[in-house]
Amino acid sequence: MLAYTLLILLAGGLQALAAHVKITWDIGYLNISRDGLSTWQAIGANGQLPIPPIYVTQGDILELTAINHLDKPVTLHTHGLFQRNSSYYDGAGMVTECGIPPGSQFTYIIETRNQSGTHWVHSHYGPEAIDGLRAALVIRDLDPKLLDEYDEDVLLTLEDWGQEPSNAMLERMKTTSLGRHPNYPTVLINGINANLSQPIRFLPGRRYRLRVVSMSFTYWFKVRLPGHAMQVIEADGIYSQTSAVDGLDMCPGQRYSVIITARESLEFNYALNVTFHSNFLARKPGLNPRYHHVPIMYNDDAPIKTYPMIEDHEVKWADEYAMEPQDKQMLLEP
């Protein structure tokens, strides 16, 4: 009886702590060069690209208002959220809603009581997300046991960014083979050209939760940090039993969280390797695959330690099909 009473009090306390997080996206066109190579009419929010990540805490109610200044309808889809009993907020254009007409606005009410983890928000009307209407969504956890597994939270977003607007790309695809004559996109890491990736600071011995979000639409990403062990704890917003891996092989829309324990020594810095690749586009040296790295900095005066390249078959990649959910919920029978 006492335990039941404590659970009721805890539930009531969490409900009292829940907040209404109100965010407005004033959606419009921007002439911008995100990669420093080409300038074209993209789609942003509040005059910004990249659109800043959204952070809420489990139990919060996210009120996301979209004001449409485009010349076509728009929707917003919270990718990864189940939307139980709220499919009208799912943002699937012409499926669960007609879309927000030009000059109109709509507020999405997103409950987070039953979910946490790493997600993202993007347009689900035509190819608007390809043109920039996308951002990471992090629902922070309340479980103290989980929070005790790491000391710091680090977000890493991965995007492909074309050399032209999506409508021009789609028109070109009608008249030529994209596989034979592709217009290879640029890689963006945390919103900027991957060649200009900003360093991530590590302190010796600290445990980092690296949240990796693939906001790509045509390319896959492979992520590795040689010299460090990765422990997967989350795949696509679902917590798993901890599993040790060497790297992440991520398709468009996929998300992982891994725990990385920093090394004790300040002798070297390291490189987080990000490989950008596509099997359905023609392979071309320097373009597909393409190799980038994010500096992992321990010491500004230390060199980056190099490791020999290894073949993919030698890498233990995360495999969410083989992962066991933390809640051990049984699979549904067919």
Would you mind describing this structure in some detail?
- With 334 residues, the chain is mainly beta.
- The protein is 9% helix and 38% strand.
- A seven-stranded mixed beta sheet has the order 11-10-9-13-18-15-16, with no helix packed on it. Strands 12-20-19-14-17 form a five-stranded mixed beta sheet, with no helix packed on it. It has a four-stranded mixed beta sheet with strand order 2-1-4-6, with no helix packed on it.
- The longest helix is centred in the N-terminal third of the chain and has 16 residues, at 2-17.
- The radius of gyration is 21 Å and the shape is globular.
Radius of gyration: 21 Å
Main sheet: strands, sense, barrel: 7 strands, mixed
Tell me roughly what share of residues is in helical segments: under 10%
Strand content: 35-45%
- The strands making up the biggest β-sheet line up spatially as 11-10-9-13-18-15-16
Distance between the termini: 39 Å
Number of strand segments: 20
- Return residue spans where pLDDT drops below 50 for at least 5 consecutive residues: 1-11
Mean pLDDT: 88
Question: Structural class, from secondary structure content?
Answer: mainly beta
| Element pattern in H and E | HEEEEEEEEHEHEEEEEEEEEEE
Could you say which overall geometry the principal axes of the C-alpha atoms support? globular
The tally of helices reads 3
